[in-house]
Design a protein that fits this description.
Blueprint lengths: L11 H22 L5 E2 L12 H11 L3 H4 L9 H13 L9 E4 L1 H13 L5 E5 L4 H10 L2 E5 L1 E2 L2 E2 L1 H11 L3 E4 L13 H14 L2 E5 L25 E6 L11 E4 L2 H14 L5 H13 L2 H26 L5 E2 L7 E5 L6 H10 L2 E2 L1 E2 L12 E5 L5 H19 L2
Parallel strand pairs: 1-13, 3-4, 3-7, 7-8, 8-9
Antiparallel strand pairs: 2-10, 5-6, 9-10, 11-12, 12-15, 14-15
Helix pairs in contact: 1-6, 2-10, 4-10, 5-6, 5-9, 7-8, 11-13, 12-13
Length: 403
């Protein structure tokens, strides 16, 4: 069965059509979830009730005191202060980083797109976890690359399966979400990260380490970045974002990469949009340096922890007997697999009729999908609303079972 990456890599029209098909599939799903009164566990969005609107507004007011600077064109590489602040945060968390090692981007999605444009040619192979972040699959399709899935378990990508895929496909890039993975919520342990880094060094492929959720940890200790491991330091591009930790409307992300790749990405960015919004970068830098960002993060983590726990508490009696799901130690998602015979795309229609929604697992697979799977996102509702949503989901399952 052909995978989603199996398109004519030399035909731009075919690549756009394939990426559009992926977007249309997700758009159709999300359209169902947007009905009035529906409790949606579908969108992977931070909670709007927890945005630090007052702190962000104050940061904009401060930078607008010098309008000639923040309303003018800027450098492609990004606001120097913002790069310094992000580099300092990364260094404080265990990844020694200089400001000039960073390129500010319009969201982490642009960071991935720039890395793909700089690294990939039509026909190149990108290895991906199965399942994986669905918008990344669109990105690889648009570059003409072929996404090849690699078998995973509860700890992420399986080393033996990865080594076999590398031997068979000679990939240019391995795309990973090793910390609070989207969609599964899992985190790759340190030992497996070292194995992945060693394989990259031995076989010469690049690693794209997508890391937007790291600061949303609710328990346990942080695992090291793959980018921090000596074996992978010269071949890892780290993708980060302020969307989950501050606000997605800022559209601010970054990439950290070895010098040659970073310069290539900056060249592509300069030809694409010149630079990311000057005023938004300046306001973010002011907020991170003068606002109470760490206090804000602690409040967000506390709220999300309670929301995660409310969802997990309701799932066991809600899901059909024989279902499986994991407890994420951070991030935004719970991934569930129902017993044989269930199709979550079909189930979604019944769920929406009962006033609740989720994302079926199908769009996250680059190969043949596991139709028993679904993703539930917990940040956007308080615990009481989550409990009501789980009750509605249980009713939808019960209704489906009687049909």
């Amino acid at each position: 069965m052909p995978g989603k990456g199996d398109v004519n890599s030399t035909d731009p029209g075919a690549r756009i059509d394939a990426a559009s098909s992926l977007a249309a599939s997700l758009g159709e799903i999300l359209a169902h979830t947007a009905r009035p009164g529906v409790i949606s566990f579908a969108g992977g969005m931070p909670a709007p009730d927890l945005f630090d609107a007052q702190g962000i507004s104050a940061a904009y007011a401060r930078v607008l005191a010098t309008p000639r600077r923040v309303l003018q064109y800027s450098t492609t590489e990004g606001d120097p202060l913002l790069r310094e602040v992000i580099a300092e945060r990364l260094s404080r968390q265990g990844l020694a980083t200089a400001a000039d090692a960073l390129l500010i981007t319009t969201g982490a999605q642009q960071a991935l797109s720039l890395a793909c444009a700089a690294l990939l040619a039509p026909g190149d192979v990108v290895l991906v976890e199965e399942p994986t972040y669905l918008v990344a699959l669109q990105c690889f399709t648009l570059t003409g690359a072929r996404a090849v899935p690699v078998r995973c378990d509860g700890d992420g990508i399986e080393p033996a399966a990865l080594e076999e895929a590398v031997r068979l496909h000679r990939p240019k890039l391995l795309y990973l979400g090793p910390t609070f993975h989207n969609p599964t919520g899992r985190t790759m342990p340190a030992g497996r990260r070292r194995t992945v880094a060693s394989l990259a060094a031995r076989h010469g492929f690049w690693i794209a380490e997508d890391d937007p959720y790291r600061e949303l940890r609710y328990e346990g200790r942080a695992e090291p970045w793959i980018a921090a491991l000596p074996a992978a330091a010269d071949r890892t591009v780290l993708l980060g974002s302020l969307s989950k930790s501050v606000a997605p409307g800022l559209r601010l992300g970054w990439l950290r990469a070895p010098a040659a790749l970073r310069r290539a990405c900056a060249t592509v960015k300069g030809a694409t949009d010149v630079h990311t919004s000057t005023i938004d970068q300046a306001a973010a830098a002011a907020y991170l340096t003068e606002g109470d960002h760490d206090g804000h993060l602690e409040r967000v983590r506390s709220a999300y922890r309670a929301r995660r726990d409310a969802l997990l508490a309701g799932l066991a009696p809600c899901l059909p007997a024989g279902s499986r799901y994991a407890r994420p130690s951070g991030g935004m998602f719970v991934w569930a697999r129902l017993p044989d015979g269930h199709d979550t795309t079909t189930l979604l229609r019944s769920a929406v009729d009962h006033g609740v929604a989720f994302v079926p697992g199908e769009p996250f697979f680059s190969g043949p999908p596991d139709r028993r799977t679904l993703r539930l996102s917990f940040p956007t509702h308080p615990p009481g609303r989550i409990e009501e949503g789980v009750r509605r989901l249980a009713n939808a399952f019960a209704h489906q079972a009687t049909r």
